[in-house]
Structures are given as C-alpha cells and as structure tokens.
Amino acid sequence: MIIDLKAELFRKQEEFKQQKLQSSSTSYVKSRPIEKKSTVWSKQNVGVLQRAQKDLESKAEDENEYEKSRFVYISNESFREKSKLYEQISKGGGIPEEDGSKVFLVDFQKKVIDNLLEERNKQREEEGHRLSKDEQICDAYIPVAKDEGEEWMDYTDSLGRSRRCMKKDLSMLKERDKDLQGKQDRIEDKEKDNVLPTLMSDDMRRELLRQKWEKEELEAMNGPIHYSNVRFDEKRSHGVGFFEFDRSEAGRQEQLDTLNQLRKQV
C-alpha cells in the first residue's frame, strides 16, 4: 500500500515537472518595441521624388531644345553662305577656284547656268506667244489690196521668224535682213575670237585678260567713251530691249543709222 502511494506521488511529481517545463517553454514575456525617433536628416520632404522626376524631364527637354536650336543655327549659317556665294557667281563677280561645291554639296556654276537657260527659254516662249497673237490678229483682218504692190506677202527672216509685209516692201526688207545677218555673224566671230582658251593656267589667263583690258583702256582714252567700251567683259544681265552696239565707231554709227531708219518707219 505504501509502495503504491509512493508510486502515485512520483507520477504526479513527474507530471507537474512536465507541465512546468512546457509552460516555461511556450509562455514568455515579450519585450516592448523601441520606437526610433526620426531626425532632421532622416525626414524627406513631401513630393521630393516627384520634383526630382520633373527635374530630370525638364533637363532632357532643355537638352533637346539646345540640339534643335544648334541645328537650326548651323543650317541658317550654311544657307547664308550658300546664298552669298550664289549671289556672287550669278552677278558675274567671278567664279572662285573653290566654289563651295564640295562643302555645300551644290554645283553653283551649273545652278547659275540652268537659271540663265530657264530665263532665256521663258523669254523665247513669251516672244513666241506674242508673235502668235500678232499673227492671229494679222490673219483675222487682211485688207483688200487696191493694186498689186499693196498685196500682203509672207516671208521668213534670217532668224527663222514668219513675217508679213506688202509686196512692194519685200525686196527692201530682205536686203535689210541680209545686212543685219551679216553684222550678227561678224559679232559672233568677234566673240569667238575673244574667248580665252580653256587649257590655260590661271596665271596665263589673268595675264591675257590684263593685256586685253589695257588695250581696251587705251582705246577708250583715245576715242569717244560709250557704254560698250567700258564694260571690260563684265557679266551683267540686261533687259529684253538691250542692244549691244559695236565697239568700233564706224560699226556703231552704221548700227545707229539702221535703227533710226527702222524707228522712222514705225
């Protein structure tokens, strides 16, 4: 009986120890969390990230605007240089040895020649339209001739233009046309003689031009001064009604007489 009681007591003690160990392992006292106080350095201003993002976007826009303005400035400077060089060549101020074709990727000499050809073709077209209108007017009304000499005749002049005149004036007009054609041929031959050879060095070309200008200067000093005597091969664009007189006094006077006769007939 005593042994049973001791065994029961020992069992109860063991159960109590086990319960005590379990309660001590599962139940513990939690420590109070320590609140960290925020300092001036750890605080962030409200919206600082948004402002930083806007600053980056604004900086990128400024860089783009700078690149655009720089490109526009370079383009404008290049355009001004092209315009200055093109104006110099088109006004006959001389074609420089380096005309900018490699720098600006523009053949200015060809551009000037193309413009001159285009202007000349335009003038020819306008002249053709004007002549066709005149011909239509002439064809619209042809008066009846009173005698054989007043009959209207069609002929082609030395320039290939269709003309109409009275039969009595036909021989005189053809003779005058031959004289004008002969003078034009002499002028063209003289211009061909004045053309400098292309296979020349720049020094030789300048020397020939200097000698030619000195000769023309002496001739201008010794004789009467006219516009054609003081041009010195200057390239200048004249109007449609411009007529270039011969440099010699005899040829000039002959041309003036012919023009005066034509003016009186008109």
Automatic annotation (TrEMBL):
GO terms for cellular component: nucleus. Residues 173-221 form a coiled coil. Keywords: Coiled coil. It comes from the Eukaryota. This is Coiled-coil domain-containing protein 174. InterPro entries: CCDC174-like (IPR025066), CCDC174_GRSR (IPR057464). Residues 152-181 form the CCDC174 alpha/beta GRSR domain. Pfam families: CCDC174_GRSR (PF25449), DUF4078 (PF13300). The keyword Calcium does not apply.
